[in-house]
Every structure is written in structure tokens, then in C-alpha cells.
Amino acid sequence: MPISGGQRVRHLRLARIAATLLLVLAACQTAAAEPRRVLVLHSFGPHFSPWRAIVGHFREELIRQSRSSVDLYEASLQSGRPGLSQDEAPFIGYLGALFAGTNLDLVVAMGAPAARFILQNRSRLFPTTPLLITGADERTLHDLALTSNDTAVGVWFEQARQIENILQVLPDTTTIAVATGASPIEQFWVANLRRAYEPFTKHVRFEWLNDLSLEDMLRRVANLPPHSAIYYNHIHVDARGVPQENDRALFRLHEVANAPIFSFVDSNFGLGIIGGPLVSTQRLAQESAAIAVRILGGETPGNIQPPPLGLEAPVYDWRELQRWNIPEARLPPRSIVRFREPTAWQRYHWVVIGALTIVTLLVGMIAWLLFEHHRRRKAEVESRRRLLEVMHLSRTAEAGALSVSFAHELSQPLASIMLNAETAERLLDAEPPNVARLKEILGDIRQTDGYATEIISHVKKLLKRRSEVEAREFDLSEAIADAMQILVPEAKMRNVALRATLIQRPLPVRADSIHLQQVILNLARNGMDAMAEIAPNDRRMTIQTTLLGESTVEVSVSDSGTGIPEAKLSEVFDTFYTTKEQGTGLGLSIARTIVETYGGEIRAENRPLGGAVVRFTLPLIRPASTLGSGRDVHGQRTGETERQYLEGPSRADRRRRVARGQSVEVDVGADGNAGCRPNGDHGGS
Q1: Which of 83, 99, 260, 579 makes a 20 to 30 Å CA pair with 24?
Q2: b/e per residue, 44-68, with b = 16+ CB within 10 A?
């Protein structure tokens, strides 16, 4: 179908519109792809404070806040230094040639010297490029007018506040040395500071160091009078024209100064100044970067009028406060103290808490252990008291069981005393009295009375109640002899042939002799009970001592009774075990407790030819080799009558013989006759 002329025209118009849109989009993409070009012009150079700190923060903030990539250029103005040519034409030509053909999007003047240079040469240098001034006090630009293409992030504060801060922190100050340089901008500040400090001259003497070289300044600040302070206003170039970069001047002043140093900007904080209300370089850089981003985004600089930045909240260096002995009580309210060295508690509080926790746990454990120890000791004392009570009851029961034989044994000497007394009366009535016979009768009465007294004394000792164990060193043979003294009457009543075979040497042990007698009596009475059902002529009991090596003695009590069932041998020493109808089951258990209390052991076994034997051991206090030589002595039956027994050796005599190393044999025949005499030298050692 043919196209009309009107349609052809409309098609051409649409094609032109589409081409135009494509060109615009391409231009926008190209513009978006190109980085933003920013020139930073330094005053003096890139390493002079405080601009060095401001530029560092500005660079970081600009890159962080800008949505587009930034191409940052830097150049330094040198004409601000004294002694150099003030002809700015070469530097203007250098910048024009450097950026010929390059469209700068923003020029940033860092510091008052750079700002004055740009503003004074605006028609020849980047006339259409937006200008941002930062790092400059507004007083340094009061004679220059800004255009609609210029803006500034300035600083302004009352200079007198720095002196007020010094006098508050150091109220006794009489001299303030003002350290500053000799460049034009620094000379400007000398004149400005003199006017600001005029109200303080009535109380404080100001010493101006701007006409000195750095070396002369160092000598001066090292010899300031007492009650002095130093106000550091930056030294960019000293009186000799030597530039002071990288805070070198402040470092050297701090090393030699004999007075504390103050300043106005936080780039010097931490480098030796006391502190106070300071200008924040970081905040200044953040504000400048934010305005730069707005300008790069298309806003007109003249429409952006930020207020000047002042002093921040007072901040102080704890290290310098300590160095100059300045108490924190003098600092203004809401002051911030930094670089405070942590205390031992702050530095090691977790360690201290851990150590205190461990110590608390240990103290608690020790207290608990002491409590348990005290409770256990109390329980042991109570247990020992009850054990002594049980032992006493056992001894009382033993004595009660032996009371019949004691009564029978005492009736004979009492009857003998009565007969001898009657005989003495008859002899006294005779004419003449038979004095010799009377003396013989009185001797018999005395001997018989002593025998009866021994029996009663021993029974009293056996029945005596004890509150504590009376462990002492004694001869075991003597304890056995005392036990035999008590057993003889019972053996006679039961028709038991009782014999003791003892070693002919002392047997020193440490124990309670009454407790060991109780063990022997209990074992012997159990043996006699076991022989109750056998023929009287076959009832035999032997108590024997034997050395086991160098340090142990064994005592055995054997009988000829029915023995112990093999299945019960391991149970006979258990509490409440008994084979008697009227038994308590405590005797052998108490015997085991007594023996083990004194470091010994006890066991029971059956004899091959019938009967049983119970053996217990005790440790000797001294080795057997130091006790002298001796031999075991085996007893023999005696044909002595009861009268001969009564006239025989007394208990004390038997003890003396044992102490001399002699053995005593007690033999009670099945017919009821008993004897007691020293053994002969027969038998093995």
C-alpha cells in the first residue's frame, strides 16, 4: 500500500526524537561515568598542622559520602612562608598549565593562606569552578568578599576562653608563654591574641615567643619561672624561616618544657598538651565533606551558608594531668578525661574476680573441711566414749560372771584369818604365852590378808569407769599375770587346767593394760564356756606369748573344747554374733576393737587335735633384739595344794620375777587344786 506524504513526515519526526533521546542518554551515561575532579590547595604544604589532620579526615569523608567516584588532586602554596618570593604569577601559571584541558568540579582551599590566594586571583584562576574554604578562622577572611560561587566552613571562638581554661586548671599561674611562628598568618594571630588577652594582663604576664627561632624557644620554655604555662598556637615557620612540619615543634617543646602546655585544636591532643575546650578537626572535615558533596551534586555554593564551628566540650589528657599534678576536681563540669591508664582493678578485674572466687571456694572448702573435721572428731570422741562405756559394761559383766569364784576365793583367806586369830587367842591365854608361835600366826594373817587385798584391789581396778583411754608403756607379761590372778579361781571352779607359757624377757607395748586384761579374760571365759560339755579331766587351757620377728608379739589363748564351726570362723568377731543362749555377741567384737585400736590383729582357728585357739598380735615399742636373750618356758602341772598356793609367791613377787626375765607358770588341776611357781630352765627359746 503506498505511503502518503503526511505519513512520511510523521515518521521522520519520530526518528529524529528517538535519535535525540539516545544522544541524551549517552551523554548522561558518559557524565555519570566520569569521576568528580577536586583540587585541594594546601597552605604552606601537606604536612603542616592542623590542616594535615583536617585533610586526612576530609579525604576519607568525601570518598565515603560521595555517590560518584572522586579524583582528588593536591597542590601546596609556598608564598605564605617568609623569605620566599611573594610573586604569585609563576604559581598561577603552574596551576593553569597543570589543569589545562581539565574541568575541575571543585576547588578546596585548606587554611586561610590558600583561601586568600584563590580569592585574590579568582579572575585568573578557575573563575567558574566552585570554591570551598575550610580550616580557616573567619577573622582571617573578614576583608575578602565571597561570590555566589564560593562558600566556607569556618571556625570562630573567643580567644579569651583558652586563657580562662588555663587559669581554671592552674589558678596560681602568673606567666603564660605564647608559642607561635613568624609567618604572615601567624603574625596576624599574634596581633589578634594580644588584643584578646589584654583583660588578663593585670594578673598574668604574657611572654611572646614569635620573634625567636625554635632553638631559642626551646631554651626559653625550659627555664620559665614557677607558676608558668605555655599556650601553643602552632609554629608553622619560626623567626629564621625554618618550616616546622609534622608537629615537630610541639614534640620538642614538650620534651624540654618546665611548664604544662595548652592549645586550641584537637590535632595537638595526645601529643603533650593538657587539653581543654578544643576545635574538632574531624567534625570540621565531616561538615566540609558534606558541603562538598552538595556542591558536586549541583547546588550553588553561595546558597550554602553553614555556621562557623566553635570549641567542643573540654577534653583533657590524663597523662599530662598526672605529670603536672593537676587534680581532676579543678576541671570544668562535664569534662572528658582520656588516655586514663586503667587501674589494677580495671586492668585485671577478671583475674581478680577469678582469684577471689577461687579463694572464696577454697576458704569455703577449708571451712567445710574444718567443720567436718570438728564434727568427725566430736563423733569420734562420742564413739570412743560409748566404746569405753561398752567396754566398762563388758568388764562389769565379766566381773559379775566371776563374782562367785571371787567370793569363794575370798572365803578361804577370810576363814584362814579367822582360824589363825582364834589360835592366837588361845596361845595368849596359855602360861607362858608361846610368843614364837604367835609371831608365826601373825605372819600368816598378814600374808593371807595381803592376798585377799590383792583380789579386791584387782576387781576394783577392773570395774573402774574410764572417760579416756590411758595408753602407756608397760610389760605385757605383767598384764597377763594380772589376768591369771583373776582367772585362777574361775578355773578351779570349772575344773579347768589353766597354764601360762610366757617369754622370759620383758615385752614392752603401748596400750591400756586394763583393756588388754579385758581381752584375755574374755577369750579365756569363752574358752571355758566351750569346754563345759566335755569331761573335767580333758579341760585344758593355755595362755602363751610368742615373738614374731623383731617388732611383734603374739598372745594365744587355746582350749580343748568343741571348737568353732569352720563356716563361722570369719564371723566370730562380728558384733552381736554369739552361740550362747544368754550371750550378747559383744565380747569378741570388743576384743577385736581393743586389739585393732593399739595396732594389732586378732584371728581365730581350730586346733588339729580339737578345741580352738584365738591369737592376737601387738607391736613392740622396741625391737626384740634390744630386749635381752630369753627362752620360752612351758608350764607343768604341780601337785601343790590350795594351801600351798596361798602360801606361794604373791602377785607382786610374780611381777618381780617377770621383770627379772623369769617365767611364771600357773597350773590348776582338774581336781581343783591350783599352784603357782616359777618355771625351770627347760623349753625352747
Answers
A1: 99
A2: bbbbbbbbbbbbebbbebbeeebee
